[in-house]
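Structure ticket #2291
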Amino acid sequence: MTGARAQAAFARQIGLRGVHAYLSANGWDRETPMGQAADLYRSRQAASEVAIVPASEDYGDYGTRIHQLAGQIAVVEGRARTAVLTDLSLADSDLVRLRLPRGSPDDTVSLTDGAAVLEESRNLLLAAACSAERPRRMYRAGRNKRAALYLRGVRLGHSERGSYVINLLSPVAPSLREDGLLLPKDPFERRVTRTLASGLRASRQVVDGVNRGSAGLKEFEDRVEQGISANLCRSVARLIEAGDGLEIGLSWALTRPAPDRGERFMVSFRSADIPVLREAGRTLSTRQERTDEEIEGYVARLSRDASHPTGVATIKAFLDSRLTSVQATFDPEDYSLITRAHDARLSVSLIGDLRREGERWHLRNPRDLAVIEEDDVD
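Resolution: structure written out below.
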């Protein structure tokens, strides 16, 4: 397939919404249409240039006409037609652009680093999606179904030259109007990218404060509502490590302009930021209550005040692949059950809300306690 034919085939996939949004945002004024077959735009930069946009994507020559239109725009803007086609194709998506300064002379990275970048890019968006749904210090993988569903719609765009660059395309629904006004509420997809920008900006500001000796953990925790989380800090640190630095840019879909669309978002991190972000991620994760946590282990110790009906048990269980002591307070009925498990040296299973306090793990609201009989073990 020749270059022109390949470009025309690519143009065939570009939606009309993106074409109209691009023209309106880049100095083309809509004219009164001539009939129902096409819409007309006139360039404010070159008044003699009139762009003809087909009225339907179902036309047999739609791809050819969009390809020709891209060539016309390219002449007016002094750019390559391929660059215009790319911009038209991105008009209905928020674009997250990650650039890693470290790369080979041919703008490549090792397979190991490349795999890490893709995985952490996914984790970065997942952290933003979880924060957009419900801001928290830390998230458990796979717990947020809405965030997982969002990730299925994100696409990996074409790479670019210039160190090592990857583009993540987050499709977003177009703006709708009611009585001539834009509907104000953003869809979830836009809230994710705005939360990503907010969390990254806040992280950069707090790291700068730490470097100057004027900020600490409290400032990270105070910015959780803005999108900071243990997951975000860890992903940024790993991306910096893979690329010996990191630049993240974000631009909004033209079909759904953001209020601050004219402000170009860009944030950068250096290798020196890795220890701060890692420590923030580690500390935030230990301070987040883990709700509905299922644990299984054996009862190591019992404690009960004769004057009080409840009792405390210390259970040895694996948390994050490490054998850990977890304390929980039980009502009289469950305490009797867990005492039987202790005396018979049987394991127990239960559900509760885990929280770390200092060096200790506590299980709040323990429930669904069950003793695992020997016959239940395979």
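Closing remark: The mean pLDDT is 87.
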